[in-house]
Amino acid sequence: MNHHNQQINGYIFPQRTISKMKRSIDRTHETDKERAFSLCLDTTTNEIHPGKEHAQKGDSTSVRFEAGCKRNNQKHIGTFHTHINTDSSEASATDINNNCQEYNEIDCIGSSRNGKIVCMTKNNPTNNCQDKVKHLVEDEDLLITTNQGDESKLYSELDKVIKQNFKLEELKY
Asked: For residue 2, with 0-12 CB atoms within 10 Å meaning exposed, 13-18 middle and 19 or more buried, which class applies?
């Protein structure tokens, strides 16, 4: 096995996948648009490959994912996306809500602010934690749209959900 591959929670990230993440971060830095792609698990090698990349469109505050795992032996295992103004370890309530769904087992966030990639894996893959985070998504939407609400309370509650349900590890490149 070459030393360019990295493992997170038993999943193997080939250098090609990490390089694509790095390019997405660079493009985000240049364009101020979030970018994203599905993470596809090759069930025969346990390697994670990138799906089709999408960029944030117009005034939308997020990136839409299309199922991008079409090759043989590949299944959707999670997502990668970039952040523009926040660190890679600072997942939003919406991010966490998406990660809580059963079909997402791993989520990586790349930050154009600090250049880092942090991946979040579920402590218990069969656990759906959306019920714990749904009200936080509503609070966050309110904060973003009207600037009303208690931001520090929201993010300390979100941190609790993250600590109870996820493990964070950095991918180096």
From this structure: exposed
CA-based nearest residue to 56, from 70, 71, 37? 37
Dist CA 77 CA 162 (whole Å)? 18
What's the mean pLDDT in 88-113? 89
Nearest to 109 by CA among 120, 98, 121: 120
Q: What is the pTM of this model?
A: 0.88
**Per-residue CA distances from 56 to 29, 64, 91 (Å):** 13, 8, 17
Look-up of token digits 């660079």: 26
Rg (Cα) of the chain, in Å, rounded? 16
Name beta bridge partners: 47: 12
